[in-house]
Structure formats: structure tokens, C-alpha cells
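Write out the 3D structure for:
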Amino acid sequence: MSLASIQKEIVQLNPKERAVLIDLLWESLDEAGAAERESKWASESEDRIDAFERGELPAVDGPAAPRDLRSSLPTDSPRPRW
């Protein structure tokens, strides 16, 4: 299987499937590092939940998050498609 044939298959995947593929490829490059990143992210997410519960971190609803991020970018920046 060539890289070109793989690329042709990839473009047929939906965005969710592409995201899963990205995760699989990333983890295949560094399995030990992946476990460490997962552990660090779990710790970070727990810290964020704790900060939210203490009132130190505000919540932003899902639709507002990308809208707020887009509005914070300079107008001459390329716009992400999310």
C-alpha cells in the first residue's frame, strides 16, 4: 500500500474518523510517551474540574467557545473551519 493510496482513502473519511486516525497515528509513533501524555492530561483535567468547582474557573458553553475564539483572532488571520 502506497502513501498516495492511503491519502486517497483518508479524504473519504468523515472528520470524526480522521480525528480517530490522527490519535492512532500519533500514539503509534511513541507509545510510552502516549501513556505519559494521557496521565498528564488526566491530571490537568482533574485540576480544571476542581478549579471550576471552587469557582476559580468559569464555564463556557460549547457553541460560545469557538465563537469567542474566532472573535479573539485578528481579522487578517486565516479562519479555522470549526
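The chain has a mean pLDDT of 88.
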